[in-house]
Every structure is written in structure tokens, then in C-alpha cells.
Amino acid sequence: MDRLPLLLVLAGAAALGFASAAQNAPDAAFRKPAPVPLAEAAARLRSAVTAVEVTDYAPGLYEGPMAPSPPHADMNARRAVAVLWKDRPERFIFSHEASYCPLLELPSGAALCNQFFEGNLGDAELFNDPGRNERNSYVDIVEAGGRRVWVRWTYHCVNMKDDTRPRLRGTEDYFAYPNGLILRRMSYESLMPDEIVGYSTQPVELFGVAPVGSTVADLFPRDRKQGDCRTHTVLDLYSSRRYDLFWDDKGGVRRNGDDATLAAISRSRGCALILPFKERLLFAILGPKSGFAADRNQLIDHCTKGAEGGCEWGQGIWDHWPIGWLNSQTSYWKPGSPYSYSFGSIGQFFVPPGKRIRSFGRDYPETCQDMELNRWTERRVFAVLLGAANSEAEVRRIGRKWLGKGTACISPAGVRDLR
Question: What pTM was estimated for this model as a whole?
């Protein structure tokens, strides 16, 4: 071989990071940093936003032993990938114990969860024992920080009793920027394309996580007239329409808004699902331009008795060990529980054009039978914008600016200039 071509080959190999024959280890660019304790990761922060693997995380500031517990199968139950901001107090956590379903968490331990593509009819999900297994749910840090963070979450929704036949495979990319905003971009592929349970009509669910020992009144503001606490809010970003849920100290639920209001918000140009914590508002924004077609979109209140399409959970609060997910092993929270807990919910469902889920027990199973709808949901790309804000006005401003980019809002670059 001529010397010049040989030099070009060697130079190209070096530029790509290939090791020479004299080297015994991969180039540093291919090495993954060892996981560290969360406090150490926070102390090491140099970039405006960083993703790092940590060894000692538990939801809701829980500090007790991870026992007794369901089988964690294959990894440290406290393992997590944490997205941390240098100049912002919140953090974004992919917790192994939560099947890596990410939590946008405030310093108090209060957090927002958006769930995932849950399999039709509740046949398959991740919040069960096999769903915690690394083979069924795992995360990869694609870009660790600097100008942005990129974390990819891949999961198989599985049946609670048998995970040998996953129903679907979800792929969700999360892009976090120094401004504190996170783009959730998601799609799924059916692994059982001839079966109804191989599809999903519910990719978004507004759940909250509460820290150990806290009460609803500790976390949320009280209504001055009624004395109950506003726990959930849905805003139409393009009008004055809103829908609020209030919980009292005795287990009661009250709503501000009716079925028609929530239906109108579902069909609007954009909406924000908000957990209005005293600390800060945590929000998820979506709309037709981000994939949620207005004629196929329905928001459902699962708390209020008699609400259209709802499960009527009332104050749905669960502390299924060690976090409180409503799943196939439900455990309702009891006063004095030593665990963090979860609560919900307002759910987002896809429905056939012209139809609605009016009775959950009757209409939801019928909706799942619609194979045209199922195939419409598969392989489409949907996007949700996540973040923390100090006011509803700030949420509106961010949401309208994001959705105002049109279908380009699903591009990560569209998040950089929103705040």
C-alpha cells in the first residue's frame, strides 16, 4: 500500500476513536462513567444540564430499607438515571424501582409522572413485578450533557403473570435543555399485531408522587372558600376554559368544570395537565401539532363520581411497595404508611373519530376492539412538553410558543428557545 493512503487510513481510524494495535483499552469516548451516589453527582455538576447514573435513589425521599418488597430480579432497586440542572432545583429521574418511568421531582420529593403506552384492556403494563426487570424496561444515556441531555427509554409492556410474550415495545426519547424543559417524544410497535392487547390507546396519564409522611394539605394550596385543596388542573392554552379537581380532608372530591368543559379542552389546539404543588407547578403540555389529533383525543377524570368515562377512584391514593402505583398488585394508602405514595388521576385516551368513552366499563373495551384506531396509534410519533413553572401564565406562554411552531414542535431543537 502506498504511504499516503496508509496514513489517511490511520488518521481516519484515529479520528473515529479506534484503538491502535499498541492500545489495550477502548478510547475514552466509549467508556461509560461508573454510577455514583446522587449527592456526589449533584456536587460534581459542571454543565448546565447533566445526565448521570446513580446508585441510591428512591421515590418520595424514602430512606428506609428496600425490604420487604417484590422481587427486583436483576438490578439494584435504587439504581436510577438522573437528569440534573446546575441552576434549577427540580430533577428528572428514571428510577429502576418505577420501571424507569420518569418522575419530574421537586426538592420536597413531590413529583409528576406521565406513565407510558399501557397495553389495551390493562392486559400489559410496566408497574408490575416483571415490568421492573431490566430485560423489559431499560434506559440509555445517549448525550450526557452540555447543551442538552438525551435519554432513551425502551420498554416491553408485559402481563403481570407472564412476561414471555410482551405485547408491545415502546421507545421514548427525552431531550432536556438548560432552560429546564423536557421534550418527551414517543412511539410504539406492536409485538402481537393480530391481537387487541398488542396495542395501546393510552400513552399519557397524569399521576403524582407524594413524599413520605406528607398529606394532600401539605402539598397543595387550599381553596379559600371551600377549604379543600386543588390537586389537578387542566388548562385550555388558547381560551379561558379550565377544569380543576379539589380534594378535602375526609376523602371527598369536588370539580370545577363539567364533562362538556373537559371535552372541549380535549379537542382544543393545546392543553396543559398540571399538578399545582405549593412548591411549583409541574406540567405536561400536548396538542394536535404534537400528534394528539383533536378528533381522537379524550381527557378523562378518574376521580369525580359520575364524571364521563371515569373509573370513579375518588381520592385514588396508593402505596404499593415501595411506590404507590395502581397496578395488578394494588395497595391502597393508609394513614401512617412509612412509604411514599402516588395519587391520580386524569387520563388521556385515543378514541375513534366521532366517538367518546362515556362509561369506562362499557365503552373503553369497545374502543380497544377498533383495529383501525389501534393501527393508527402504532408507529406514530407523539410529543409532550414537560417542565416546572411558577404560574399558570408561564405555562400558557411556554405551551403556546411551543405548539405555535407547528409540527416542528416535535423536533428537539424547538425546545431550546421556549424560556
Answer: 0.92
Q: In what order do the strands lie in the sheet with 271-276?
A: 137-143, 149-157, 168-176, 182-190, 382-389, 281-286, 271-276, 229-236, 242-247, 253-256
Q: Which residues span the domain enclosing 339?
A: 34-415
- Complete DSSP assignment for 337-363: -SS-EEEEEEEEEE--TT---SSHHHH
- Residue 403, domain member (yes or no): yes
**413: its cell numbers:** 431543537
11 in a structural domain: no
Radius of gyration over every alpha carbon of the chain, rounded to an integer in angstroms: 22
Q: How many domains does the chain have?
A: 1
| Cα–Cα distance, 228 to 215 (Å, whole number) | 12
1 in a structural domain: no
What nine digits make up the cell of 116?
Answer: 407510558
pLDDT at 69 over 60: no
Tell me phi and psi for residue 241, to 5 degrees.
Answer: -65, 140
Q: What is the mean pLDDT of residues 56-72?
A: 77
Are 363 and 121 in contact by the 8 Å Cβ rule? The answer is: no
Burial of 253 (0-12, 13-18, 19+ CB in 10 A): buried
The reply to whether 95 falls in a domain is yes
